[in-house]
Structures are given as structure tokens and as C-alpha cells.
Amino acid sequence: MTNTQDETDSVEIQEWLEALASVLEYEGPERAGFVIEQLIENARHAGVALGNGAAITTPYCNTIPVSQQPPYPGDLELERRIEAINRWNAISMVLRAKKTAGGVGGHLSSYASVATLYEVGLNHFFRGATPEIPGDLVYFQGHSSEGNYARAFLEGRLSEKNLINFRQEISGEGLSSYPHPWLMPTFWQFATVSLGLGALQAIYQARFLKYIENRKLVPANDRKVWLFCGDGEMDEPESVAGLSMAAREELDNIVYVVNCNLQRLDGLVRGNSKIIQELEGVFHGAGWNVIKVLWDSQWDALFAKDKKGLLVKRLNECVDGDLQNAYVKGGAYTRTFLCGDNEELKALFAELSDEDIARLNRGGHDPLKIYAAYAAAVKHKGQPTAILVQSVKGYGLGASAESRNVAHNQLDMTEAELKIFHKRMNLPFEDNNLENLAFYKPEENSPELRYLHAQRAKLKGYLPARQAISHPLVTPDLAAFDTVLQGTGDRTMSTTMVLGRIFNVLLKDPNINSRIVPIFSDEVRTFGLEGLFRQIGIYSHVGQLYLPEDKEQLLYYRESQDGQVLEEGITEAGCMASWIAAATSYATHHIPMIPFFTYYSMFGFQRVGDFIWAAADMRARGFLIGATAGRTTLEGEGLQHQDGTSLLTASAVPNCRAYDPAFGYEMAVIIQHGLREMYQKEQDVFYYITAMNEKYVQPAMPNHVEEGIIKGMYLFKAAGKEKLKVQLMGSGAILREVIAAAELLETDFGVTADVWSVTSFNELRREGAALQREHLFSPETQQKKSYVEQCLQDHVGPVIAATDYIRSYAEQIRPFISRSFTVLGTDGFGRSDTREKLRHFFEVDRYHIVVAALYALAQEGALPASKVTEALKKYNIDPAKPNPVTV
Prior knowledge:
Elements: H1 3-45, H2 76-101, H3 109-124, E1 137-139, H4 145-154, H5 160-164, H6 197-214, E2 225-230, H7 237-241, H8 243-248, E3 254-260, H9 275-286, E4 289-293, H10 300-305, H11 310-317, H12 320-329, H13 331-339, H14 343-348, H15 354-359, H16 367-379, E5 385-390, H17 415-425, H18 447-458, H19 482-485, E6 492-493, H20 495-507, E7 516-520, H21 531-536, E8 538-539, E9 559-560, E10 566-567, H22 572-583, H23 585-588, E11 594-600, H24 605-617, E12 623-627, H25 646-650, E13 656-659, H26 664-680, E14 686-690, E15 696-697, H27 706-711, E16 713-717, E17 725-730, H28 735-749, E18 752-758, H29 761-777, H30 787-792, E19 799-802, H31 807-811, E20 821-824, H32 835-841, H33 846-859, H34 866-874
Parallel strand pairs: 1-2, 2-3, 3-5, 4-5, 7-10, 7-11, 8-9, 11-12, 12-14, 13-14, 17-18, 17-19, 19-20
Antiparallel strand pairs: 6-15, 16-18
Helix pairs in contact: 2-3, 2-4, 2-18, 3-16, 6-22, 12-13, 22-24, 28-33, 33-34
């Protein structure tokens, strides 16, 4: 390119820049932004290639210019002192726990990085709960719990003894390692430490706020959801999974604060690039409002002097690894690194000493910059806001940790480092008190505590805090489900279709109909529940802006602003996040809601098990419906759709009540009981209930079986008193095979069988294990019988159990059966085929159950082994067939 061309370009560019400056001066930044957007749009229409970063990322500087920063409303010096005290107490908490309890652990660097972000919010933005408005919802970063505890100590909500017992909870006076509502039910609201889960929960929580507002269940309000997470946490798919939904739903009630200290657990997040620029592109691309807080106020004069933008250009060029290295190596290195051979940049820094340059800080530690960003975020309308804040991991912890790769694993500080920290933070006590790691709390009438309490009084209460105010609901009696309890006569119906009937009952109940929240991941028609579309509508924050192509049909796809169904699309994780928001609404919104998340059972505990565990931690109340359940009921779908493990996985969740009903009346009894337990008695449990898509005649409920259904088993069919007798147990999809096996045993071999419907091996195991523990600690008292033993005590013969799940599910009750016990199950991978062939393949059909019963009798000497061989031939069972566990 010639010099003449360079000069022409320079003149042309200058004219464009002067035009932009004129618009900014006379019409303001909003008008300038509009003009630029129009230019970009027209350029793209003309086919101009703008590059990957056009209008997606902005220069590597603060979004809010100094001229637009609002005045700071607080006392900066008092806030600095309060923050310094919190920092010290958090450090002391971790170091004392390590010193006295050994390996209980604790983190130092995360809170050190995020402290100022929290303090500005807690002093000026995060509103507590009142009887009228439950307050803002803050998802605190899981690894920074020490800072939350330190502040609660100053507020008088935690004692010194609590802090001394950090991560030592068994005594009853300790503090949880992370945000765990189950363990600290009046303190923590949200379980966030499993990385990524808090982020997705926060987005769907913000949408749930709009949902209950649009449905007129709560008054219109300006409550905010604040999410704090780290830049490394944004690698989790859940952290970004809900971004487009939040923009599409115009969730201007969520503020996503990403603390970008450039480091994750082992090293840099993006050492060879720039994580903040990358995240800006992600958020902008998803349709979010993005605010960057990168540099503290000490940089303002430099940027103001830099008329050519050379400093910003240099900061754009360097990668995160450079920024980390420069921070660690200090002012002299930073000067050389930034300026290089550029004389104009050297002149820019000429008046600053190396010490001055070393003190140039990142925006995450400047309350003025943070306040400006928060203030802009809460005022922004029509979009969710992401605030990308650059900070230093391990800020203030000394040279061995601050901004170093090892920062996350820094669990100790030397006496020298403590003294440096003391001096740097200007702590209000003598440094000779550092060695004993004593907690520091000013006097109650001190300026610090008076200020702290006054600021929280303005914001209506302390955070974090969980308020589970009692609001019992009147739930329906079992008689309300009479149409289900009476069975279907000669008509066949799946238990999923029965669920539809149960929905009809609940949606007609004036006491709870508005509280029902049906949630689906785009499978409503698959489950045959599309009647809900017309009956209660699908929630949409804008209503239905189009004419649905099936409008002339009875069950057309109807969206409505006050719709009740949450049709989330193909995202089990999003559905689970919505379910958690509804299932904890009794505490977060002071309005109990009754969510039913109905999904392919295989895509529950296996796919979103971590969310289910978090829900348990948060004391969720509601129903998870595992539809198309079992490994053989879902014909044709194959290996990755067939579920043989969910019920066993559910057994590991202490407050999950898991059931596998075979018949509609069992489902009705379980749901009615669950409603009473969770919403009338307000127990912190939730229910997992399977539902099948196989159609068969639904019998009427026998007399006096309700208690057994809930406890886990009842006698479905009693046999006579014949000598040759067995006890057959079945559940869910396989119970009907068990019933058929009992008939074959009697007609073909003269063996009678009692048939037991086992609705929950989990509940049977839970009751039996509790009794075993009672016996262990009361060895001299009379030993009680477990419920399984009570049921079987008057019924002779070996026991055979068959389910549509792996054998370990039914094996749970083996300790409570003191006779021969044979378990059949669906261990191995699934297959695509008919139900009959699948059950034969997995050896859980009626014929294999007969063979297992005869074998058990033969083992006891009650009949010859030849009878087993006879059955194998009679039912065409090939002994050489492949083992389903190994093929």
C-alpha cells in the first residue's frame, strides 16, 4: 500500500471518528449506539465482512465511562474497614480449622477475589425479605462461603463458636463447608457449589419469578436474581445453557456477575487468549446486556491522557497469561511489558513510579466501578445483564498465592504473609495478635457495626437468609380420586394416562389448582397429556403471537401469558432448574407451588442427577414423574432410552420417596399421600414416581391396601394353603408378569403363589435399616420385626422378586428375608424390540419367573430338579442363550 493511500485512509477514518464524536457530544451515547447498529446492519446487508468480533466484543476497557459513573452513596472508608475485617475473619476461620481439626480444608482465594463484589452489593443493592416482598435472590459463589460467614459474624447472626467450628458440623454448632440449605436451613437458600448448577438455577429462577407474576400469583415487583460465579465455572455447559432463554424471555430481573480472576482450579482459564472477551462475545451473541468492569479508578487518568487509544490497543493485544505474569512480577515488569519500544506509551507512564504501576488495580477491587456497574444493571430494561469483572485470585493473600496458579489450593499463610496482609488491609488491631488467629469484632456501638446494620436496615434484612414461612395447603382426600380408584373396567390404559386423570382432579380442586406446575421437556404428546394444552395453556411471557397450524383441533398448541404448563423444550437440565424453583417456592417466594416434572425416566437421575441432589439439599417439595419407565416397557427405543437404574439411584437421596406403581390406584394413593406430607404437613421431602406407557386394564383398588402402598408392599392376591407354595413379588411394569406367572405355576405345576405388589423397595429398605439401627443401639429391648418380615410371617415358601430394574434394586430387602430369596432384574444394556421379547431377553417374563420359583422349591427339596428342566423345555427357554449382563 502506498503512503498516499495510507494518508487517504487516515483522513477518511478521522472523518468517521469526528462524526461519531459529534453524535456523542450533541445527541448522547444511546443515539450513537443506535447509529452504529444501523451502520453495521446495513454493512452486513451489503455483504461486507465485518470479522468475528464486530458488535460482539468491545475494547478491553470499562464499559461505563467515568463521566457516567454515579456518585457513590456510601462511606468508602467505613466500608473498606468492614471488608478488611471480613477478610481477616475469613482467613482466620480457615487457618484455625486447619490448625485444630487437621484436614477439614477450606478455601482462601475465592473469597479474597470476590469480597468487594459482595460488599458493594450487601451495602447498597441486595434486598432482604419483608412480609410484603420476599426480597432479592442471591446465588452466592459456592467456594466463597467463608466470607458469608465472616460477615454474618459481624452482623451477630453467627457466634464465635460457630466460626471456630467451621467445617466441623457433627457437634451441632459448626458451619457447612459450602452453601447447604439442608444443613443450615435458616441461612443458605441455594446449593451452588457444584459448578454450573447455580448459574442455570438462577436463570430459571428469574423466569419462574416472571411466571408467578404473569399468572397473578404474586403482585408485580422488581425483585432481582443475582448470580455470582467464576470465569472458570463458565466452562460448565450448565453455565451457558440458559443464556438464550433468558434473552428470549427478556429476563431483565437477573444480573449475572462473573468474577473473572482469569484463573480456575489448576491454572489460567484462557492463558492463550482472553476469557473476558470470549465471555462478552457469548453473552452479547445470546442477546444480553454486557457491562465490563476491568480496571480500577487509578487507570482513569491514563485512559484520559491516551488520546490515540494506544493503551487500550495494547491491552487488547495481550493475552490473559501476560496479564497474570505482569501482576505477579510487579511494576517494573508491567511497565516494560505494556510499553515495549513504543515511546508514546512510555511517555504515558513516565510520571508513574514502578510502585505506582504495581498499585494499578483491577476493577473487581474498586467499589466505585462496581457500584456503577450494579446501578446500571438494575436499571436496565428488556434484557438480562452480565457484568464481567476482572479481579485477582487470592487478592491480598501475599506473594505465594496472589494471582498465582496455586492460589486455589492455598490453604495456609505464614506469619510474614499475615503481617503483610495486616498492613495492606490496615486492620484495626495490633499485628502481634496475628499468631493466635483470633477473630476480630468491633464493639456494637462502633462506627463499623452501626454502619453495617444501618445499610442492611435500609435493604430490609440480612443475607444470605432462608425463610420457610408456614403456608399449609388444604390437599384433597383420597376420595377425590375415586374415578382412578375404581379402575377402568374393560378399557386399557397406561399409568401415564392415569396421571392425566390425576391432573384433572388436581386442576379442578379450588384449594390447589392454581399451585400445580406441570413441567415437560417437549414430550407432552409422547406421554398423551396434550389435553393440558387446551385446559390450562402453555406459559409464554408474550402470549401467542401466531396462529397455530392445529388451531382447528381440540387439543391445539395453545400458548398464553397466564399459561400454567412449563414446556421447556429439549432440556432436562432446564426443566429440573424450573422444577427446583417451583419446589422451593414455599421458601423463596413464600408461596408453596406443586411442580410435576414428567420426563423420560432414563433422562432423570442418570442425566440430571446432580440437579436432583441439589434439589434435595435445598429441601425441595414436589413430584418427579419418570415416564416410560423401566428397561422393557419402552419398546423399540433401545439402549440409551431404557431405564434400569433410576429407582436404585433414588435410594441414595435421603429425602427422596421413590415408588414404582403398577396400577393407577397405586399412583393415586401415592400422589395423594405426597400432597398431604409435603403441602399439608410441610415435610421437606420429594417424590419420584414411575409411570409406564404400556396399556392394560387398570383394576379397582382392593380394600385396605392404602397403608401397604405407602409403606412399600401389600398382598395383591392370596393363594390357598397348599403344601407347594411360593411368594412372588413384583413392581411396576413386571407386576403383571408376576401375576401371570402365579397362574402358570398353579395350572402347569400345581404350585400356588401369593402375589405381592411392591410399590417401593426403597421404602422397605429405609424402614428396615432404621429398625436395624434401633436394635443395634437397644440390644436389651425386645427386637421388632421389619415391615417386610411382618408381611411375610404368615406366608410360607421361598420368595422370588422380579422388577424392570437391575437386581440391586430388589436386593435391598434381602437382610429382612430369612428364607430363600431369588431376585430377577434387567441388568445389562437395553435393546430395541417388543416388550415380550425384551422381557424374555432380560429373563424377567412370566416364564422365567416360573422357572425361578420351581428352582427355589427344588433347592429346598420340595420338588425334583427335573421339574425345572421340564419348565425350561415347556416354555422354550434355551439354557445356552446369551447372558444379558455380558452381551
